[in-house]
């Protein structure tokens, strides 16, 4: 039986307790090498506050990995990630037409200008214009007076 390999994109959420990226990625590299995967690129995506606490963790390091693997190995990779307590979550997608440009693209962690993440606001633009209750209430009163 011929072994086919496909290209995949994996997003791994790791415990953000280790400040060194190479040391933090060690569990991912170990799991992938144990499953005979050819790693094309591995790079930090971002370190963020989690939307909700996962196993007493409030922050997580997102790692983006592009790799080639036999499709039958994906289930084993996901299973190994579930067994490793340093890997919080994993999402693996098949990428049929991955370009070199996508492999070299900057991630939020590697870009020079940091944009605020979804749900975050910048301090300078944090102030919101106040609503003028007089205008809104007058519109509602007009609607009520039409009912009479």
State the shape. Answer: globular
Specify the structural class: alpha+beta
Count the beta strands. 4
Gyration radius over CA: 23 Å
The biggest sheet amounts to:
4 strands, antiparallel
Query: Main sheet: which strands, in order across?
Result: 2-3-1-4
CATH architecture level-2 label of the domain at 6-100: 2-Layer Sandwich
Mean pLDDT rating: 79
Q: What is the number of helical segments per DSSP (H or I, 4+ residues)?
A: 5
Percentage beta strand: 25-35%
- Unreliable runs, pLDDT <50, ≥5 residues? 122-126
**CATH class categorisation of the domain at 6-100:** Alpha Beta
Please write the string of helix (H) and strand (E) elements: EHHEEHEHH
CATH superfamily of the domain at 6-100: Ribosomal protein S6/Translation elongation factor EF1B
CATH topology of the domain at 6-100: Alpha-Beta Plaits
Helix content: 25-40%
Q: How far apart are the termini?
A: 81 Å
Tell me what the structure shows.
- The protein has helices at 21-24, 26-34, 74-83, 100-104, 133-147; strands at residues 6-15, 38-54, 57-69, 87-94.
- It is of the alpha+beta class and 148 residues long.
- It has a domain at 6-100: Ribosomal protein S6/Translation elongation factor EF1B (Alpha-Beta Plaits), CATH 3.30.70.60.
- A four-stranded antiparallel sheet has the order 2-3-1-4.
- A hairpin with a 2-residue loop joins strand 2 and strand 3.
- The longest helix has 15 residues, at 133-147.
- It is globular and about 40 Å long.
């Amino acid at each position: 039986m011929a072994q086919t390999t496909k290209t995949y994109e994996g997003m791994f959420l790791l415990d953000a307790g280790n400040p060194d990226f190479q040391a933090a990625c060690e569990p991912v590299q170990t799991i992938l090498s144990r499953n005979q995967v050819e790693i094309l690129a591995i790079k930090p995506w971002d370190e963020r506050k989690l939307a909700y606490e996962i196993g007493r963790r409030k922050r997580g390091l997102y790692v983006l990995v592009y790799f080639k693997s036999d499709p039958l190995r994906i289930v084993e990779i996901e299973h190994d990630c579930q067994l490793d307590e340093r890997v919080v979550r994993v999402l693996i997608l098949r990428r049929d037409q991955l370009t070199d440009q996508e492999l070299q693209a900057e991630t939020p962690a590697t870009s020079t200008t940091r944009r605020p993440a979804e749900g975050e606001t910048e301090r300078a633009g944090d102030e919101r214009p106040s609503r003028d209750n007089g205008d809104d209430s007058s519109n509602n009163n007009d609607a009520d007076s039409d009912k009479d």
